[in-house]
Give the backbone structure.
Amino acid sequence: MPEYQTSPGTRDILAPDSTRWRRLVSVFAEVVESAGFGQIIPPMFEDLGVFLRLGEATDIVTKEMYDFEDKGGRRIALRPEMTAGVVRAFVQHRPVLPWKVWYAGPNFRYEKAQQGRYRQFDQVGVEVLGVDDPHLDAEVIALAWEFYARLGLSQVRLIVNSLGEPADRAAYVEALRAYFSQHADALSVESKQTLQRNPLRVLDSKREQDAPLIAGAPVITDFYSAGAADHFATVLAGLERLAVPFEIRPGLVRGLDYYRKTTFEFIGGALESSQNAVGGGGRYDGLAEDLGGPATPGIGFALGVDRTLLECDAEGAFRAPSESVAVFVVDVTGGLEALSLTAELRAHGISADRAYEGRGMKSQMKAADRSGARFALIVGGDELANGTVTLRPMLGAVGDERAQTTVPRTELIPTLKRALSS
Ligand code: AMP
């Protein structure tokens, strides 16, 4: 084993998976840019205070943050998610409203690493600031839905909930606190601790021991003010109009403290339940104010790239592309021809590769075969003397010699373009 390996919870993404990864981000960009979103590239670290606004009761803040003091004595943290930094950017730049942004990039959480749960993981997502219209909630959710559809996924499910207005949510939290405290003896040790920090998160417990109590717990629906109930009903009507199927789950509280009203999660139907959340989001109408800006409504979502690709694997969708060049240049005259021919082909938009170190014909043809190229372009002594090249369709290790043609160098590019487009 080499002395140095990737640190736990991190991975190298190699080709062709890296190509697939980049294409996934392109598909996302296409979907959201057609809806008027512009890209934001925020820094990967911020003042720790930006993330502390996510809430003291949030695991990713209290337990999982990569924070440190930098050489200038500042308290810094690697971002554990994107929303806080984006809202910080909003407060800093005060863009024209509504502000619709999308992003892609890595986040860092000190989690117990396992399949689908990493310490460095990527997300793509959007945020919209400045609009309280519930139709926006439906539109935003539908964008994520469209993205999954364009990847060819068919087993992703959408679950939605509303956490009500802040006052509704606060009353509900107190009702949960009272209920769970009254039955604390029946709760698991872990949930008893969670109860102290955030009664809402007890609803997230997957422990069997907690299930009966959770099933009998108060339901958020009974705490909605008229405004919150209306808002939620309009979101759902919007989703129906857009033919986005959903399931209402009143127990969906999500990990972050800042959510208000609409919350939602996308579940990968082909993944294990411990890491089947492929994405999620919601409204965070109080966050801009918390970060020192004007009271501004906000909504967004983040979709896990790593997990979405695991769902693609499991569903056999959005496969990794085959990595091959169009043409492999085989030069047995010393290598200078390969040097200039590959450059010429690439300059004309034809992907090309070659072998190095003056290898023999047989070895170069083997490399041509491995490269997956459709054509080998052969330059031997005769070709060099006549100003021609031999174009051989590849088919097995030596190519199809009978179908090969000899082409004047001056005709090479148009001939190749014709051959490659057929
Ligand atoms: P969250 O901000 O926790 O709601 O995360 C949004 C999405 O990011 C989740 O639905 C996951 O797909 C993904 N995600 C969150 N944490 C991790 C992690 N540790 N490893 C991989 N993906 C993650």
Notes: The chain has two domains: 17-164+224-315, 327-421. The longest strand covers residues 99-108.
